[in-house]
Amino acid sequence: MYSCFSVLKYRNILIISVILVIIGIAILFFQFQDENQGISSQQQSLPQGSSLTVIKNLDPAQSKNGIYSVQMLDFKDGYNVKIDLTDPVGNVVTTKSIANDAFEENFTISHLGNYTLQIQNTGQNETEILGKIGYYPQVSVILDISDFIILIAGLIGLSVGMVLLVKSRGKTESN
Fold first, then answer.
1. Residue 148, CA distances (Å) to 37, 90, 158 in order
2. CA angle at 66 for the pair 83 and 104, rounded to the nearest 5°
3. Neighbour-count burial of 92, counting CB atoms closer than 10 A to its CB (0-12 exposed, 13-18 middle, 19+ buried)
4. Alpha-carbon distance 34 to 31, whole Å?
5. For 29-71, what is each residue's pLDDT tens digit?
6. Averaged pLDDT of the chain
7. Is 11 helix (H, G, I), strand (E, B) or coil?
8. Digit-coded pLDDT (tens) for 125-139
9. Could you please report the per-residue DSSP string of 62-96?
């Protein structure tokens, strides 16, 4: 009879742990979805001399913090791109030459309207480019940490519950 109650306790630990893992994954999913809603992205293969344009309507009333990133997905030595970021009034926010596989930089959103990220392949070879522009993610640190803690607690609970359940079943079968 004692072993029957201990098996039920271990099952409860497993059920609670599974619920914690599901909650943690759901929070991660919604955080990811929320972050991506504020970002425009475009991917394209760029021959030498051609360019890619990514446009996002940004509002400083929503957030003054913007971010853009450029990735060369098939990066090799000798691959180069030039980046021009302009605001809605036509002012150049930044101009950069990049010779690495990934680059990311923050900028200040000063005007309401379309911000344009122009990426030009200045290298000798065709390259696959992924460009993104949008609001810098404003994820709460508390939400980020709590999500991590919930996932870890759930995974630890699953591990402990499984070990205890297997041990208790082994004891009941040997009796």
1. 22, 42, 15
2. 45
3. exposed
4. 5
5. 877 776 667 788 899 998 988 999 999 999 999 889 999 999 9
6. 84
7. helix
8. 888 999 999 988 766
9. T-SEEEEEEEETT--TT--EEEEEE-TTS-EEEEE
Burial 8-31 (b: 16+ CB within 10 A, else e): eebeebbeebeebbeebeebeeeb
Distance CA 52, CA 36 (A): 20
Q: How far is residue 9's CA from residue 60's CA, in Å, rounded to a whole number?
A: 53
* Four-way CATH pick for 40-135: 2.60.120.680, 1.10.287.130, 3.90.105.10, 3.30.310.50: 2.60.120.680
The length of the chain in residues reads 175
- Domain-by-domain residue ranges, the chain? 2-32+141-174, 40-135
The model's pTM: 0.66
Residue 124, both tokens: 């000798």
pLDDT at 169 over 80: no
Measured CA to CA, the distance from residue 137 to residue 35 in angstroms comes to 6
Angle at 28 between CA 23 and CA 144, to 5 degrees: 100
Is pLDDT of 146 > 50? yes
